[in-house]
User: What shape does this take?
Amino acid sequence: MDPTDRAELHDRLTLLSDWLSLGSRQERPEPVFEMPDPPREDGPRAGPEWLDAPFTPETLSKVETDVLRCAKCRLALNRKYAVFGEGVLNPPVLVVGEGPGEEEDKQGKPFVGPAGRLLDKMLAAVDLDRTRNCYIANIVKCRPPMNRDPAPDERETCMPYLERQIRFLRPKVILALGRTAAQTLLKTERGVAALRGSFHDRKGVPLLVTYHPSAILRDEALKRPAWEDLKKLRAFLDDGPAT
Ligand code: URA
Assistant: This one.
């Protein structure tokens, strides 16, 4: 069998086997397949252009390697660690924040500073947890200096990584924390107060917006509406979309 067909067949069979035996997609090492020699420069092309490219099935660790090596924007210059994200595969909930802060940059993990501690409590209140049923990631993977908002070009440069994470993880629902996450994911200029309260369709995945835990730490009055949002999320997970 042609190596390209073999690679594709392998990918499909592992996916099918994951779903049949485990009900979810598993991370696996990338298989290595021998590729045919590329057509010679001076000769006629032997097939379509993509035949020349090595077959590399997407895995989460491949995306992570790309993020950890990334130097596509100025944020890479001052980071200690790029923060890829963490949590379970096929998560019921993908939580998306803005970008790493000081503590996250030091540890290479998302939401481990003061806002992270509050986030963990908020999630626990509706039986969610990054070790059991959530995945946590950010719009930008490197810390903006002085915790400033990530600039539009930094968000745009980094978003393909989150898109690849989403495609691989296939979350049931996305929880966008704060203005940057909500506006970037929904491609809108509207604020959190206008966007929260109902589910949005984000490329076929339901998305709920709520306040960022850092904002709640600054303004206690946001606690109550954020709690309402989390209850809505819980009801969605338990009962599906409200009719
Ligand atoms: N704030 C964010 O938006 N993300 C983190 O990972 C930490 C703080």
Q: What stands out?
A: Residues 172 and 180 are 21 Å apart (CA to CA). The beta strands are 86-87, 93-97, 134-138, 173-177, 200-202, 205-210. The two ends are 50 Å apart (CA to CA).
